[in-house]
Amino acid sequence: MLQNLKNIAVVSLTTVGSRLLGLLRDSLIFAALGTSLWNSAFILAFTLPNLFRRLLGEGALTSALVPVFSDLLERNGRAGAFRFFNQVLTRLLLALVVIVTLGMGLLAGASGQGWLPDRWVLGSNLAVWLLPYMIFICLAAIISAGLNLVGRFAVAASTPILLNASMIGGLVVAHCLDADLGGTVYWLCGGVLFGGALQLLLPAIDFMRQGWRPQIELKAGVEMKELFQLFLPGLMGAAILQINVLVSRLLAYSLEDSAVSVLYLASRLMELPLGVFTIAVATVFFPLLAKARSSGDENGFSSAFLQGMRLVAGIAVPAGIGLAVLGGPILELLFLWGAFEQADVTATLPLLAIYGLGLPFYSAATFATRGLHAIKDMRTPLRVAGLCLLINLLAGVWLMQIFGAAGLAAANILAAIAQTICLWRALAKRYASLGFSRLRRSLAKVLFAGLVMGFACLLGEAVLSGFGFGQKMTAMLAVLICVPGGAVLYLGLLYWLRFEEFDALKKLLLRYKPGM
Q1: What is the pTM of this model?
Q2: Other beta carbons less than 10 A from residue 436's beta carbon
């Protein structure tokens, strides 16, 4: 358990650095571009390579690769596992080159026909520039998964820092050249491509240090057949989930110029705790779950899953409450600069509150999906993803007519709730010990502590507002005092309530020494 927590801490700390740099990046982007059409078009164009990253990189292919790679490590050691890895990497590279070439051709052709509105032509032109990023990030995601399976987490988790730094560099160059909105966006695209190349290079070097050597492997064994049997339904399931994201942004793009920008900003702030901890837990526990299944250890699988879910809930619930309560000060402190105005804060705030309340469901669904993938069940997430797509589409079209972009955010949350319930039920049918009743007391403790923390933060913000400081100073004090103060209060309540994973976290802090 201690080693697992150390790995989670490594991934979390590196992810914290990445996410904080990402917040700086987004703050600079919104300060330079505001919620203009250029910003919305860039976000929409950047969605396409990221969509394929989730499909062919860290999503479906990784989920199929991990259990097969884990089996090979158990049977044949690293040599056999690395040979199989090269077979996968060769096929992925060929597929990416074909997809990117066709995609760039289709987008360039569509934008040149003259029948698309100017708004959509702009998005298509930017997508042509950004599609090659797909090759870098998908290959990097697969190599990072290989690193995780051989016990290497830090390098893979730190690569997004390179992307964020490169994009910030592009913004700095654009500012120094006094570029207009269009020029700034194209420099930003250049930063994306350069950062993607760095994201691939760093984990590849570390993986090579573990004994891997990149080679073209066209031959395929029985393991490749097993991979495709897992990958194809997983691909369809991941595709549906990513289409959910794309549908929301396309609907938002059709609403108004700023809708995509504010929807993206609210979801990015929600993804900070999701990426810092939930993804860290899933990253560390996924290989453990796969290995427990490979060795036939059902008790070990159940124990690891429940432990991971308690850790996920222990962070996601208070983080979501904190975003809903302190969303105003957070937005004012981080983004109320330059072209991002108070009206943009007001437009983003309700979306952030909605996403904050949905964060625990996103987190639980993410971890439950990994649990099913670890036992090589790709079909259940596929069926559930289809249901969620229908819920998101129908609810989104209906609610956006009433609430605008906030309705699209609410539709996302309704889909996440349905996904969590369905996935957890599917796991409980396989393993009776994974029923919701096993976590009821733990979740009650977390919810109680989180609500008390949220009320205290709300009260603290109201007190600070009464002193008559300026807007920026009040927002800064609210964030600097209420966030750490709320965290201390929450942890104190968990200690008093004897939350199951609190002792393990305490042991980690007491035993950890630099260099261990």
Answers
A1: 0.70
A2: 11
